[in-house]
Amino acid sequence: MTDVHQAFNSRVKALDRKRARSGYGYVGKVRSDGLTVFKPKRRMPGLPIRGLLYMVLGFVFFKGVVLAHLGGVTYEERVAQLAEGSLIQQAGAAVMQPDPLTRIMARYLAPVLR
């Protein structure tokens, strides 16, 4: 009797694992014999491109707001001061250098912020 219960429990565990894998959806394929077989979709590994793009655009927007608020000369002075600091501060200064997109954004935001 315990063998029957163990076999049943192992089948239930296998079904639970299969159901957990299909949490991302499934794909149905028809085999050559006409049987439709459903397999769980594979989870796509890799970088979330859209999230990284939003993060970069948000950072460029932040730089544009700071540049528009402080003005070009003051912003350049503060970045230069940052470049004289430690290694981490120098990396921050390299990232905070005003790029063309930041300058364009600051030009449009300056009248709004002042």
Short description:
With 114 residues, this protein is mainly α.
Written overview of the protein:
Helix content is 68%, strand content 9%. The protein is mainly alpha-helical and 114 residues long. The chain folds into two domains: 39 residues, no CATH class; 65 residues, no CATH class. Keywords: Membrane, Transmembrane, Transmembrane helix.
Which regions are unreliable across 5 or more consecutive residues at pLDDT < 50? none
Q: What is the count of β-strands?
A: 2
Spatial strand arrangement across the major sheet: 1-2
Helix/strand class: mainly alpha
Ends distance: 82 Å
Rg computed from alpha carbons, rounded to a whole number of angstroms: 28 Å
Query: How many structural domains can be distinguished in the coordinates?
Result: 2
- Assembly type of the chains comes to single chain
Biggest sheet architecture: 2 strands, antiparallel
Shape field = elongated
Give the rounded overall mean pLDDT. Answer: 88
Secondary-structure element series: HEEHHHH
Helical content, roughly?
A: 55-70%
Strand content: 5-15%
By DSSP (H or I, 4+ residues per run), the number of helices equals 5
